[in-house]
Design goal:
Number of helices: 16
Radius of gyration: 49 Å
Strand order of the largest sheet: 11-18-17-13-15
Largest sheet: 5 strands, mixed
Distance between the termini: 133 Å
Structural class: alpha+beta
């Protein structure tokens, strides 16, 4: 047989009927609803264990051995009892299906004492007259009594079919005769008919053979080219697979515990279980198919990743993706689809096929079963294997076509967790700026807005969004540069600051509510808010004792702590941590200034400059001299000069200083 099968015929239109197709589809739908049937009708693991890498004639010989070893042959007469079980309607076990038409037939009411309903004939799908010499009676065994090759039929359909070989490559619809002396077995039955013929040509191949075109001897059947196409166009459905398993195991598969004598034949139709063997046995060893998701590698394999979605905990389950599996090459092939890791596929099992005579494409819905209650990285795979066994074309083709894998990734995230700390869950923050000099340099404090990783880890924690800021209180006194942001990763932080603006006397406070949410993903929720509280007091620079007047007591405090570390109360008015000349200058500038005066629009009470002189005299009196250092005296003089008062006032202010400076050595007493 040549590598490319061709068969050109002129067909008359097939007999059309929707009943057969509708009935068959109804049964397929019922069977498909039973998930366990997929595994239930599979052969035992040992049945084809001896078949490993065989091809061609060697493969056919191995199949003959598998299908004949231990075969409990029944006779033609027993088929009257057995066919009501093998071809039963799974939805109603009192009924059965007629071959070719798909009509529902009522089962015989008792044993085989007369046929009832339409069940009138035991159809030899491989015609009796084409199984060699001899005749068939109820005691006949062998190919003529083989249940795999017999089907229930009405007399009228049996008569119409006669012993015509099968054909009708491009036909669809109802069964019936077509031009050239052929019979079209119907859309719903054409694949079943082909696999029965393949079985006969293998199990009973020592006497029966299969040819292209019309048979020329009484042991031949055809048309091989049409049957091959039927085989790839109409794959084994669950009804056909159940029938195959029922013949093998017996009627207990349908009615457990039944006392019927039908105990099974202990042999199977290998081309239903392993439809991929057909090409190697009946065509050649050069199948040119290559399956792939996209561009394949040199070995024919391909990889495709879908999903990659990130959702929040309790989000809806992920939606399936449509992926396209393509076939290159002109030949037909079967392929299997298996899933792992929670992946789902609209196409499963090993009974899937691409037809002959051109490239093809198949859409597959790939999904993922995910419990979104628990964060984690969820991954599932759908693997497609080209089941053809031929290797003649080498790497990447047929039996050497590498597997094709779709990986579905889906990440479920724990909610984000905003915090003022990068190391702990801190939901509120209070900053007290203390005392700040009026119109002096404002103080600033750093702020961190972090996203704390969940116990599932940073990679499984949602990003954080700051959606809005709600301020309240003295927001003209305080300032923060916090702005809204999005997609802050876990274990990361954005740096901001808060500051006080000392332009109004008094004790002030402000609060800010920071409103967060998870990143914009399915399942996103609004998280807990953070609360920021700011407080501080604005006082006159130099008012160390906070009595609302810069006077002698403040000057005395500053003098006592001059050039030493200190606080506001000890004279550190610019809050740099040390009492120094800048603080002295602030006090000198504001000496005599009161809160009441500022509020009334008067910067200082009358005679403030004289007060400075009086204060200095008191400060450097004999009793308090120990608090005045040379440095303080010098800086005080310099501070007064920098204030640039009126000339007369300047002389008044400087006179005591100079006087005391001259007197200072004479006051040092020996110990």
């Amino acid at each position: 047989m040549t590598h490319r099968l061709t068969h050109r015929m002129t067909h008359r239109p097939a007999i059309t009927s929707s009943a057969s197709r509708a009935a068959r589809c109804f049964v397929i739908g019922i069977l498909a609803s039973h998930a366990t049937a997929q595994a239930q009708y599979e052969p035992p693991a040992s049945y084809y264990a001896s078949i490993t890498t065989q091809t061609g004639a060697t493969l056919k010989s191995a199949l003959v051995s598998a299908m004949s070893s231990g075969h409990n042959q029944n006779d033609y007469g027993e088929a009257r009892d057995y066919l009501p079980f093998t071809d039963a309607n799974p939805a109603n076990l009192t009924q059965m299906f007629e071959f070719y038409t798909g009509n529902i037939i009522q089962k015989p009411s008792a044993s085989h004492i007369g046929f009832t309903g339409l069940f009138q004939s035991r159809e030899h799908v491989w015609p009796d007259s084409r199984q060699g010499s001899g005749s068939t009676d109820n005691g006949t065994r062998g190919s003529r009594g083989d249940l795999h090759m017999l089907k229930p039929l009405s007399n009228s359909v049996n008569s119409s079919r006669g012993n015509d070989p099968f054909a009708g490559i491009n036909n669809n619809g109802a069964a019936g005769p077509i031009s050239g002396g052929y019979w079209f077995p119907g859309t719903a039955s054409k694949g079943d008919a082909a696999r029965i013929i393949f079985y006969g040509a293998t199990r009973w191949g020592s006497t029966l053979s299969l040819v292209n075109g019309q048979p020329t001897t009484n042991t031949q059947m055809g048309d091989l080219a049409s049957l091959l196409r039927f085989h790839y166009q109409d794959t084994p459905d669950l009804f056909e697979r159940r029938r195959n398993d029922t013949i093998y195991r017996g009627d207990d598969i349908l009615t457990p515990g039944d006392d019927s004598p039908f105990d099974g034949t202990n042999n199977r139709n290998a081309y239903i279980d392993r439809p991929e063997y057909v090409w190697s046995v009946f065509v050649d060893q050069f199948n040119d198919t290559k399956l792939s998701f996209g561009a394949p590698d040199l070995d024919g394999s391909s990889k495709l990743t879908v999903g990659g979605n990130r959702v929040l905990r309790n989000a809806p389950a992920p939606l399936p993706y449509t992926v396209n599996l393509t076939k290159s090459g002109l030949d037909g092939t079967y392929f299997s689809v298996t899933t792992a890791g929670g992946a789902t596929s609209s196409v499963t099992g090993r009974h899937n096929a691409f037809t002959m005579d051109g490239v093809g494409s198949r859409s597959i819905q790939v999904g993922l079963n995910v419990n979104t209650n628990t964060p984690g990285l969820h991954t599932g795979t759908v693997t497609v294997e080209n089941l053809d066994v031929t290797t003649g074309l080498g790497q990447g083709f047929g039996g050497l076509d590498g597997n094709d894998v779709v990986t579905y990734n889906h990440t479920v995230l724990a909610p984000s967790n905003p915090s003022f700390s990068q190391t702990s869950d801190l939901n509120s923050r209070s900053i007290d700026f203390g005392i700040v000099a009026l119109d002096g340099i404002g103080l600033s404090e750093p702020l961190f807005l972090a996203n704390i990783a969940s116990s599932f880890g940073a990679n499984l924690t949602a990003f954080l969004d700051l959606d809005s800021i709600s301020p309240n209180g003295a927001t003209s006194i305080f300032n923060t540069n916090i702005t809204t942001f999005s997609n802050l990763p876990a274990n990361a932080a954005n740096n901001f600051s808060a500051s006080i603006l000392p332009h109004t006397l008094g004790i002030h406070s402000a609060s800010y509510q920071l409103n967060f949410s998870d990143e914009n993903l399915p399942g996103s929720i609004t998280t807990a808010s953070l609360s920021l509280a700011l407080t501080g007091r604005v006082a006159i620079g130099g008012d160390a004792d906070l009595n609302n007047l810069v006077g002698f007591s403040d000057l005395l405090a500053l003098a006592r702590n001059y050039n030493t570390p200190g606080s506001w109360a000890s004279g550190d008015f610019d809050r740099n941590g040390i009492v120094d000349f800048a603080d002295l200058l602030t006090l000198a500038r504001n000496y005599g200034v009161s809160t009441a005066g500022l509020l009334s629009g008067t910067t200082a009470h009358p005679g403030a400059e004289v007060d400075r002189s009086s204060a200095l005299s008191l400060l450097f009196s004999d009793s308090d001299f120990s608090f005045a250092s040379d440095a303080f005296l010098s800086d005080w003089t310099r501070a007064q000069a920098m204030l640039v008062p009126e000339p007369a006032t300047l002389a008044l202010l400087l006179a005591p200083t100079l006087l005391l400076t001259r007197r200072r050595p004479s006051l040092i007493r020996p110990s």
